[in-house]
Amino acid sequence: MTKSASRTAVGILCAIAALAPAAALAHAADRGFVMLLPTGHYMVGGALAVLASFTALALIPPEPLDRLARWSARLLRLPVDGRVLTSTLSLVVLMLLIWCGLKGSRDPLSNPLPLVIWTVWWVGLTLLVGLFGNLWRWLDPWYGPARAVLAFAGRRHAPPLAVLPRRIGAAPAILVFLAFAWFELIHPAPDDPELLAVVVAAYWLFGFVGVLVFGHEAFTRQVECFSVFFAMISKLAMLRRGDDGALHFNLPGAKALDAASLGLSGTLFLLLALSTVSFDGLMRTFLWLGAIGVNPLEFPGRTVLIWPNTLGMMLAFATLAGAFLGCVWIGQRLAGRRGTLLETGAAAGALVWSIAPIALAYHFSHYLVSFVLYGQYALAAISDPLSNGANLFGTAGYHVLAGATTGAESAWVVWNLQAGAIIAAHVLAVLMAHVVAFRLHGDARRATVSQIPLALLMIGYTVLGLWLLSSPTGF
């Protein structure tokens, strides 16, 4: 047989093989199996669970709940704060990751930079902060280097070169977080290693200059969005460092109830964090793609969707913020208050802490599958960061188990974890809001009445969250 005939025969066989039915080796999403589960029952059950929680709280005297929220147990005294060392080590690791992004593989599943940034840090660290406290306080890559530079310049105890106006609150952090969310959700290639390396390096430089000019405390409180975000999420943790320098154990969310009322910018920041995760789920659904004129079965790519998704993200934020502030205003009016802007803003700043557990639960539920899958890729990539055959930690040959998130059994486990987290978070949110309302009004009846609109919003958001997790997606 001639070479030409051989090529023809091979081509025909390949075409026949492609048309023949066979098992697909591509990664399959779990949505198809989730849709076979009784998700409607879950949605109704979730809504009823939140409603039942609110009804039960209306019948329980709020004073015992208030005392329970203030309870804490002293565990141990912490050693000397080693933030300078841990911050410096964090910067060293970050610089190595940036180097890997620039010099390593362009495959996002082989390069450790996108895997560590989007999976280990953004997903994993957020969950750890919500459980154990503000670990970002020690990992912040600006604190140690900035102190070293200021000490070398003889300005360690000098006032900052410029002062950020306190009246602007966290408004700059809102803008920075919007830019981050846009890059993560809407930019065509947020996981491209080389591009991500440039963005991460530029953001570190932005933060470093800001800390040197405005001071670390002020800059991370008002401008650096991740410090603001992690500080808020850490209020849910069961561990906290007390004024005596010791580690204390408290109930989930108790720290948030003791936190000061947020200003308008802080309130909007927390609502923005929740709305962006929700929109990330919404923008992938057939409903959203159909609404913007895209055939889900002929997905044109992220580049085509930049403007519709940008407007959608802003609309999601505006809708959630308007709904939350509107419910607070209506609740104030139902409780007999005048509902002035100042009064409503103060109440919203206290009640918005009840949104924090919902934001954390959505973060967990939305990213659970990708965390399990891409966390395995990260484990392999860190041992061979430049894709040159190295095996630094002995995990370079780790076999990624894609089946851990696929199949009927896995989908059942994942879906129940996701649904359970969302429902539990909304129940906790109702509990926290009830305690906050009692502290605001000082009367059980008025506190309960003021929470009716917010409880209805939480019921609706529970149903929305479960629907987003079970809806088919276009990409």
Q: Nutshell version of this structure?
A:
With 475 residues, the chain is mostly helical.
**Sequence of strands across the biggest β-sheet:** 1-3-2
Biggest sheet statistics? 3 strands, antiparallel
Spell the H/E element sequence: HHHHEHHHHHHHHEEHHHHHHHHH
Distance between the termini: 45 Å
Our count of domains comes out at 2
**Gyration radius, in Å:** 25 Å
Q: List low-confidence stretches.
A: 1-29
- Record field, number of beta strands: 3
What would the principal axes of the Cα set say about the shape? globular
Please tag this protein with its features.
475 residues, mainly alpha, three-stranded antiparallel beta sheet, 21 helices, 3 strands, 3% strand, disordered N terminus
Descriptive overview:
With 475 residues, the chain is mainly alpha-helical. It has two domains: 25-71 and 318-475, no CATH class; 75-250, no CATH class. The protein is built from 21 helices and three strands. The protein has helices spanning 3-19, 31-34, 39-59, 62-70, 83-103, 112-132, 136-139, 143-152, 171-185, 193-214, 216-222, 225-233, 254-258, 264-282, 286-291, 306-334, 341-351, 356-381, 408-441, 444-450, 452-470; strands at 72-77, 239-241, 246-250. It has a three-stranded antiparallel sheet with strand order 1-3-2, with no helix packed on it. A hairpin with a 4-residue loop joins β2 and β3 (246-250). α3 (39-59) packs antiparallel against α21, α4 crosses α19 (408-441) and α5 runs antiparallel to α10. The radius of gyration is 25 Å and the shape is globular. Residues 1-29 have low confidence and may be disordered.
